[in-house]
Amino acid sequence: MITRRTVQFARMPSALISRFKYNPETRCLSVWFVRTRRRYDYEDVPPETHEEFRRAFSKGSFFNRHIRDHFRFSVAEEAAEPQLSLPVNPAARPSAAPSRRSAERRMK
Predict the structure, then answer these.
(1) What is the DSSP-derived secondary structure letter of residue 5?
(2) Would you list the DSSP string of 56-96?
(3) How far apart are the first and last CA of the chain?
(4) CB–CB of 8/47 below 8 Å?
(5) 90 vs 21, which has greater pLDDT?
(6) At 39, phi and psi to the nearest 5?
(7) Contact at 8 Å (CB) between 2 and 24?
């Protein structure tokens, strides 16, 4: 079954592919690769191919057999996957030494 959402997005455990996204309106399948962290956009991918890819047990094997060398592609300008940046609280880390100023305040 194909959903009517504009963009379908998936992450999965794979040695080859870190995630993929499909836009049924443009029929563009975007694939991010683990090793290079680059995004490749595959053109004119039928919804049925995307659905089979989504259901495939081995995304890498399916990709190599049914997508790679079967569709035109382009490498996206912003190659790397966006990384989440979380604020770091140095006091929360056990190895963080207190600053000299905070140590002086505690002594008073």
Answers:
(1) -
(2) -S-HHHHHHHHTTTTS-EEE-SS-SPP-------GGGSTTP
(3) 68
(4) no
(5) 21
(6) -105, 130
(7) yes
Are 39 and 31 within 8 A, CB to CB? yes
Within a 10 A sphere around the Cβ of 97, how many other Cβ atoms?
9
d(CA 12, CA 55): 11
Model-level pTM?
A: 0.62
Strand partners, 73: 42
Counts of helices then strands in the chain (DSSP H, E): 3, 5
Beta strands in the chain (DSSP E): 8-11, 17-23, 28-33, 39-42, 73-75
Q: Are 21 and 7 in contact (CB under 8 A)?
A: yes
- Name the nearest CA neighbour of 75 among 23, 46, 37: 37
Kindly tell me if the per-residue pLDDT of 88 is higher than 70.
no
**Residue keyed to tokens 């905070």:** 102
H/E run at residue 102:
helix 100-107
